[in-house]
Amino acid sequence: MRPTKTDFTATKTRFNLPENVIYLDGNSLGALPKGVAERVQRVVNDQWGTSLIRGWNDHGWIHTPSTIGDRIGQLIGAAPGTVLCTDNTSINVFKVLGAALKLRPDRKVILSDTGNFPTDLYMAQGLNQLLDAGHELKLVAPEEVEAALDDTIAVMMVTEVDYRTGRRHDMKHLTKAAHDAGALAIWDLAHSAGAFPVKLDACDADFAIGCGYKYLNGGPGAPAFVYANKKHHETMRTPLAGWWGHAAPFDFDLNYRPASGIDQMRVGTAPILAMAAMDAALDLWDDVDLEDIRTRSVDLCELFIAEVEARCPELELASPRDANVRGSQVSFRSQNGYAVMQALIAAGVIGDFRAPDIIRFGFTPLYISLEDVVRAAEILEDTLKFRKWDKPEYSVRAAVT
Fold this sequence. Notes:
Blueprint: H1 8-12, E1 15-16, E2 22-23, E3 32-33, H2 36-51, H3 55-58, H4 64-75, E4 83-85, H5 89-103, E5 109-113, H6 118-131, E6 136-140, H7 145-148, E7 153-159, H8 171-180, E8 184-188, H9 200-203, E9 207-210, E10 225-228, H10 272-282, H11 290-311, E11 316-317, E12 329-333, H12 337-346, E13 349-350, E14 352-354, E15 358-362, H13 370-385
Parallel strand pairs: 2-13, 5-6, 5-7, 7-8, 8-9
Antiparallel strand pairs: 1-3, 4-10, 9-10, 11-12, 12-15, 14-15
Helix pairs in contact: 2-10, 4-10, 5-6, 11-13
């Protein structure tokens, strides 16, 4: 185990965590940071309750997408003025993909991979149908993305960390390969932001999107974020022309004029209560070193792999063994994966299941300890050894898996 400057024993105390629960699903929904509920209540009572409509000016609500966006930008290697906290991931995919395709009008192919999260692919398919201009979505295996880049590709759109397996793309290398082929690069950071250092500007990424409710702990349905490289600010045009993205929204022009820079990626009114929760959650990062987060994450994941493989030889590692090409999650294949995960949850180890056979465990160093990892592996071993998963109720699929 490598030493770190961040005190992870202290960071764990900054979360409201249920007793007797080992929470290994922060890659789906982050835990509740202390102070979030109080902040939201304060905005409800002291701002909305007393200032009413004046809150947009008196409390700076109008600026929250930019101010919170800049805070997120510090975690993803993005310069001030290049990130907005706004909308949800799916809507932001639509915006940046539409903008990117306009910047490459002579090309019609969107390249992605079969490990990409489905909503990104659905948005691409829907946009292609809407444009009705001959665009197509080309899917290849994750390891074949670079080889598929050629002079037909307009946009390479990939998720940095595969949501099922945790496989991690090399952002800098693939972005350069895309640019060498004349294509633009869009990165989905849903499983990256807050999990390890991201360096969008240094990698010369063109656009990026990501969510606020996983490793950033912004709460269920937290506002997402969108990034656009400064080199595109004067020429990009989003396909969603909302009034908040207008150059002067309170002029109430009948014709749309895009705001300058990243502000044109705004669409509608910001959800101020959700923004308050997101802003409060980001306070956690003020004294945390992202390099320490990565070091600790690797230690946690490596320990879990070793413990599980020693205790549960019937499980197959689905994640890359090499930490350099793995995010902050570990996945195993299990023939009875859904039932196994339900039994684990009942025993106090919360992970999740991804079809068809993946049991998935996310590691958030801010609140997961080495002791938690060993105990989780012991419970998994017990669950398999004594077939505790083999109960009818554990095979009944819930709406969310």
